Amino acid sequence: MTNENHPITPSLELLKHWEEQHFDEGENYDVMLIQAYQAGADQELEACCEWLNCELGTGWGHGTKLRSARRPKSPSLKEQALEQLKSLEVAFLVTHGGDAKTENIRRALEALPND
Description:
It is built from 5 helices and no strands. The chain is mainly alpha-helical.
């Protein structure tokens, strides 16, 4: 039924984990299928990054760039807040025709550490 020699095959540990999730926790099949799909895609991405690094060398960071492009990090809370502040400033300008006077809020947000 399955090809155990296929290059993208879940590890026995991962299969056992999914089995425990289903039987012990009653996890929904949809959730498990999504996890399996994501695990396969992540494994394929790692294989591609490794191939790039082997073929082109690690000095240029091609594998890292590919991984960053295909699995971008979610914006931090700070980045989200700054983006929302920008939207509020634009909305205020459009509706009221003036400055929303948000300099202190922006400076406070920008002073927060990046997480």
